[in-house]
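Margin note from the TA: students keep mixing up input and output lines. Inputs are the sequences; the output is the structure of the whole complex. Example:
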Amino acid sequence: MNGSPAIFDIRDVSKSFPVRSGALRRVTGWLKAVDRVSLSIPRNCIVGLVGESGSGKTTLGRLLVKLLEPTSGEILFEGKAITRLDRAERHRFRKNVQMLFQDPFLSLNPYKTIFQTLAYPLRAHGLAQRSDLGRKVDELLDQVGLESATAHAYPHELSGGQRQRVSLAAALAVEPRFIFCDEPVSTLDMSARAQVLNLLREIQRKRELTLLIVSHDLSAIEYVCDEASVLYLGGIVERANKENLFARPRHPYTEALMSAVPEPDPDHQRQEIILEGEIPSPANPPSGCEFHTRCPKKIGAICENTAPLLRSVSAAHEVSCHLFAETAQQASRPGGAEGHGRPSSQTPARTSFKSVSGGRSPQ
Amino acid sequence: MTDQQPMLVARDLNMHLVFDNEVAKVVDNVSLVVRKGEVLGIVGESGSGKSMLALSLLGLPPQPYGKIVGGNVTYRGIDLLNPTSARTVVGKRIGMVFENPGASLDPCYRIGDQITETIHAHEEIDKREARERAIKLLTLVGIADPVATFSSYPHQLSGGMQQRTGIAIALSGNPEMLVADNPTSALDVTIQAQIMRLIEDLRVRLGLTVVWITNNMGIVAKVCDRVAVIYAGQIVEYGRVRDVLKNPGHPYTQALLQASPRIHDQQPLIPLRGNPPSFTDLGTGCRFAARCPKVIARCREADIELRDLGAAHEARCILTGQSS
């Protein structure tokens, strides 16, 4: 298993949250935030995760950084299951896997100077002597394009873009191999957004990091990512490298997300697809294809009754939609998966695209 | 669309925030005209003063610091800077949609009560009639189950539904004009597309005029007829959307466009350097000079007027156009 090209292997992972109600707060149902997702994240690249609020993209990211534990399934980091780490391994894992939060106005401690914020992880992981801290912090600030004087500032003295750089510096402080970036630019202005997106690209290249970037903005994803997965109600509906996904989006949901991004060009002509309604509640997902309630290309009863499988439509391009059942290579429905069963590593077609090796065998 | 009758007219409007020991000139000599039936965009970064401009246009400078110190604003001849006459217009003939519906709706009152409150504020009608009107408004803004929504609390609604409710409240006085302050910034792209279509739809059906404040050039391209680009409290470029976006005359507009990501376009994004200047220390000369890639010595010598680029297109840059 070692030496696999993937930094993360996500195998058939689900995460459910209990729904409690009544005076006794009894568990009355389960909300499936992530539903049988299999995904492998190759090393040294930027992977995007796209979807609306409520699609489960943040939950999936949080599972990877061990802020949440999966309900079922397995997550392997560099070939090792992260659910079974001992104390020392967990400490190392925390150093290797970092997170960049959405809102830099909430993620930095307002009572600490930038120096304190950046020095803490260095000391916690024994990466710098006390006498060395000043130089290390300066280096970090320099890497994210901030002046060393910033070290003495408090977060309220900085703009949104500067704060997001500080958050990134804090994540980089411990020399991680992987950073989960949760909507890193959604709260930022255009110009700060461009700065942070450029910085993420640059840092990834310079440090040979792997980044997972969650966003609902496809233009940002296209700008920074090498490949991306589109999530809807906790399941992957399309996955492809950047070229395929943006030149030939297959899933109607991906097409709709793409057409929803307003382009700063008055001559821009694009077929406008506006989805009706909103993403259904994951506590009570629709039958069959979960997107059928909003799908502009619904073909009939099959969409309402049968959950489509994630299938290869070309090299490095998978889609879960009945429209492409014929073009896809033969694939059988996994046995025992009821209702909205998600494809996992069983489908033979998956091997053509960064597939997880040694997954569960069919039936 | 542009030769239509002017609705909202601002002339040399100045609004300052007056603090104990300093003055922030957040709206500086703004003149603009909103014509019947059009969508005028006001675009700029955060901190450029665009929301302050919107509030000043309605005669509502933020209290207690905001003071209108010069100029005038009229709505079809009615003075909006006079509180008594403004009261017959603002909230009734001009409705306002706010940025974050989660914050602008009161969490303690049901949606229905918040809509009928506005209806009662402007009209003497009985409770039952107000309720019927509110339910009609909720239907109009595309809420699937208006009766249930009428008796819901804001937290029970999604962000998109909350913004639809916000629009229903803005429409409750049967306005002729909507002022929408970044109405989609808190929403997902799919819901943003729905809200953009809803406002466009309402504009056509109800014959509304719209002022749309945003920081997104994509939204300007998609929904606006004309646009005013705001920087440090001034209009730096003003004209038809096509002219401004295709032939930006001001380096700030050019910079905003270069910083906006586009699908199917892998041009590197060029972020703006630095931050907008402080409103309390604006100095002389072009306010964008410190961040401008094309700056020359003459830029800092004297304040710069809007210059004519032809076809009702103006920019505040000495490198383009002729002084008008």
